[in-house]
Design goal:
GO terms for molecular function: mRNA 3'-UTR AU-rich region binding; NADPH binding; quinone reductase (NADPH) activity; zinc ion binding. With about 325 residues, the chain is of the alpha/beta class. Helix content is about 30%, strand content about 25%. It folds into two domains: about 1-120 and about 285-320, Medium-chain alcohol dehydrogenases, catalytic domain (Quinone Oxidoreductase, Chain A, domain 1); about 140-260, NAD(P)-binding Rossmann-like Domain (Rossmann fold, 3-Layer(aba) Sandwich), CATH 3.40.50.
Length: about 325
């Protein structure tokens, strides 16, 4: 097999394409030939050490492929089944690997391998954020930062399907057009507009009941200032850097606010929660209500450039690596 490995943390250049062996799948495992691999911001956190992993390590949590061999005790899958996964185990940057069968999701014919590889982690993130962390209801108005990003484009479409009004923030006019095309009712270009002022205008001064913030350091205070009293600040990413320590008295002063830092892993810790989350995602994508825009493609061997482009905000929507 070919796989990406890191021996130390650091910039994109620490990733190396290496040859490795894949043994027989163990009990409860299947061997998967991977056809498409998803690129996600969390991969950069593992690479830099922001989210520590034991070294040396592979990278990547999301991919799609075909089952080739079953380990002992596996009855839920068979050779030839198309599958995808979005919660690891880490090491998705590879053309073949052994995986726990209970963490895999079968794919219907309506969803391609490339779409699946780009939707599992980001789409299941969108699902728990919209349906569990804060349950979006018809008539809600929500604020979504980085609305033209991979999670953002899925969330905006899904929130619209739930009957919400979606306000998104982006950093350029080009990204604003992409966000509008994927469900945003209003788009704020933070490079040219005052986000808080514009949001207050759009909500008649009320603010919003929830802000979904995957940006982190740069948007903390903006997010808090956009919330209505007793609103919820949902911090689920660090694209601009880790969120600084939060003074709890700020939550009181700004209207008895709630703040949470959820993770997909916690919301899919049990096999039942994982399958429920994945089923909702597969159903809404298969229905056509949520489309997965695969806007960038790189060979696995070009993953260094892919990370550079992701971190410099040159990408939109979903990025897929091909083995």
């Amino acid at each position: 097999m070919k796989a990406i490995r890191i021996e130390t943390t650091g910039g994109p250049e620490v990733m190396k394409l290496v040859d490795a062996e894949v043994g027989k799948p163990g009990a409860g495992q299947v061997r998967v030939r991977q056809t498409a691999i998803g690129l996600n911001y969390i991969d950069t956190y593992h690479r830099t050490g922001l989210y520590p992993v034991p070294l040396p390590s592979g990278l990547g949590l999301e991919a799609a492929g075909v089952v080739e061999e079953l380990g002992e005790g596996v009855t839920s899958l068979k050779p030839g089944d198309r599958i995808a996964y979005g919660t690891g185990p880490i090491g998705a940057y590879a053309d073949m690997r052994n995986l726990p069968a209970n963490r895999l999701v079968k794919l219907p014919d309506a969803i391609s391998d490339e779409t699946a590889a780009g939707m599992m982690l980001k789409g299941m993130t969108a699902r728990y954020l919209l349906r569990a962390t804060y349950v979006v209801k018809p008539g809600d108005t929500i604020l979504l930062h980085a609305a033209a990003g991979g999670v953002g484009l899925i969330m905006s479409q899904w929130a619209k399907a739930l009957g919400a009004t979606v306000i998104g923030t982006v950093g350029s006019d080009a990204k604003a057009e992409i966000a509008r095309a994927h469900g945003c009712d209003h788009v704020i270009n933070y490079s040219t507009e005052d986000t808080v002022k514009r949001l207050r205008e759009l909500t008649n001064g009320k603010g919003v009941p929830v802000v979904y913030d995957g940006v982190g350091k740069d948007t903390l205070m903006v997010s808090l200032d956009c919330l209505s009293p007793r609103g919820m600040f949902v911090s689920f990413g660090n694209a601009s850097g880790p969120v600084p320590p939060l003074d709890m008295l700020l939550l009181s002063a700004k209207g008895s606010l709630y703040a949470t830092r959820p993770t997909l892993m916690a919301y899919t810790a049990s096999d039942a929660d994982l399958q429920d989350t994945a089923r909702d995602l597969v159903d809404i994508v298969a229905s056509g209500k949520v489309k997965i825009p695969v806007n960038q493609r790189y060979a696995l061997a070009d993953v260094v450039q892919a990370h550079r482009d992701l971190e410099s905000r040159k990408t939109t929507g979903t990025t897929v690596l091909t083995p």
